[in-house]
Amino acid sequence: MSTFGTLFRVTTYGESHCASVGAIIDGCPPGLPLAAQDVQVQLSRRRPGQSNLTTPRDEKDLVHLQSGIEHGVTLGTPIGLLVRNEDQRPKDYSETDLYPRPSHADWTYLEKYGVKASSGGGRSSARETIGRVAAGAIAEKYLKLAYGIEIVAFVSSVGKIDMPSAVSPPSQVPDDDDDTVEDALSPEFVELLKTVTREQVDAQPTRCPHAETSERMIKRILRAKEANDSIGGTVTCVIRGAPAGLGEPVFDKLEATLAHAMLSIPATKAFEIGSGFRGTRVPGSRHNDAFVRREGGGGLATRTNWSGGVQGGISNGEDIYFRVGFKSPATITQPQETAQYDGTPGTLAARGRHDPCVVPRAVPIVEAMAALVIMDQVLIQNARRAAVSLLPPITTLPPTMVKPTAPAAKAEGEEKH
Ligand SMILES: Cc1cc2nc3c(=O)[nH]c(=O)nc-3n(C[C@H](O)[C@H](O)[C@H](O)COP(=O)(O)O)c2cc1C
Questions:
Q1: Residue 73, Cβ neighbours under 10 Å: how many?
Q2: Is 163 within the bounds of a domain?
Q3: Measured between alpha carbons, how far is 85 from 152 in angstroms, rounded to an integer?
Q4: What is the pLDDT of residue 170?
Q5: Rounded distance, CA 180 to CA 211, Å?
Q6: What is the residue range of 376's domain?
Q7: What residue ranges are annotated as transmembrane (predicted)?
Q8: Ligand 1 midpoint to CA 167 (Å)
Q9: Whose CA is nearest to atom 6 of ligand 1?
Q10: Is the minimum distance from the CB of 221 to ligand 1 under 6 angstroms?
Q11: DSSP E strand stretches across 53-211
Q12: How far does the centroid of ligand 1 lie from the alpha carbon of residue 119, in Å?
């Protein structure tokens, strides 16, 4: 349906060519300082027409805060966010009155509802993600102020072009019985996840923070565009500073909720967390994240982080990182042999303005969905903690059953990598 979240509940509305798109957020904590600009920054990173790598549809995507905020502070009541659709050209879609676009949502929407929006993919259009990005920006502001949480996504591949350190070359797996394979991610990529900033990401029009790779990606996207074709890619996202304890096993494990959020974004086809599919090539002896004492406080940290910050569906206090795969966009203007709605074979050459590659614009959408997941889980875990805090301390159970209260003494010569 159109609502996401349990305690921080976001409902998006709007179609590609209707009057406006937006969201209602229910459950935002009161007292959060909030200005339209907090939301606009992310909407402007998502908007079309940012460069020659994206669709030329020219939308400013200016947000209008409708409710739930007064004197720059949230009231705890539903927040309404509205963005007008301005640069609409429904005529661009006259061919697709006859033809369902191959691999788009025209046919399945019609099969499901028996009626569909007249143009532009309706609700399946990426215009819908405006509501998510606006709501995510508000969640992010809370997470930053309350926990210092940072969320940064970036483009990690376009077509066959990967950031150099993201994937181990196949030559590093010489034969079936050789377990001395490289780690799932290179040390450089692991370091990048710890440090990468939005400024570094936005310094490249592709939003790939590796300048040399970005240049190659630009050429690849422009080649697709010139051929009236399209190309896919991946977005990697890291969430830094999330506390341990987020995620609701068993059906709402944190990775499951993140996967749900990410795979709800249009054009997504894949999700992997931590070492992901590459981790399956590494033996457990090398893949396990050994525990060490957490620096500067109680509790445990891990020496490595192949788990991607989640174990047993619960965050462990390490960085949470994951990768999302986006397909090559369906609407291409080169002629395609296909069939009309009534089954008559024919050739569709779609018109209209389309993204040759969605990943540069998908970056803030991935960040927003990550923020919505973490925000919701934070509120759920805080509700549990608040309920527990009203009870007397547990003294009747064996110590092995209860979380130790005092940190153990620091061991000599211990180092965290
Ligand atoms: C930022 C963004 C921009 C997109 N732009 C286009 C586009 O210009 N043309 C297109 O056919 N699909 C585009 N899509 C993808 C479609 O919305 C999506 O493929 C379609 O709704 C079918 O859904 P599915 O791919 O999830 O199955 C875009 C997706 C995102 C996230």
A1: 13
A2: yes
A3: 28
A4: 53
A5: 31
A6: 3-167+185-389
A7: none
A8: 26
A9: 355
A10: no
A11: 63-65, 69-70, 73-74, 79-84, 150-158, 161-162
A12: 14
CA distance 298 to 408: 8
In a domain, 227, yes or no: yes
Mean pLDDT for the stretch of residues 17-41: 97
Q: Please report whether residue 179 resides in a domain.
A: no
- Domains of the chain: total: 1
Measured distance between the N- and C-terminal CA atoms of the chain, rounded to whole angstroms:
43
User: Residue 67: pLDDT band by 50, 70, 90 thresholds?
Assistant: very high
User: What percentage of residues in the chain have a pLDDT greater than 90?
Assistant: 78
Count other Cβ atoms within 10 Å, centred on residue 388.
Answer: 9
pLDDT at 213: 97
16 CB within 6 A, ligand 1: no
Distance CA(5)–CA(24), nearest Å, equals 12
Q: Which helix (H) or strand (E) holds 193?
A: helix 187-195
Catalytic residue among 61, 104, 183, 319: 104
The CA distance from 83 to 133, in Å, is: 11
CA distance 97 to 274: 43
Is 410 inside a domain boundary? Answer: no
Residue in 290, 287, 291 with CA at minimum distance from that of residue 306:
287
**CATH code at 7?**
3.60.150.10
**Per-residue model confidence (pLDDT) at position 415:** 47
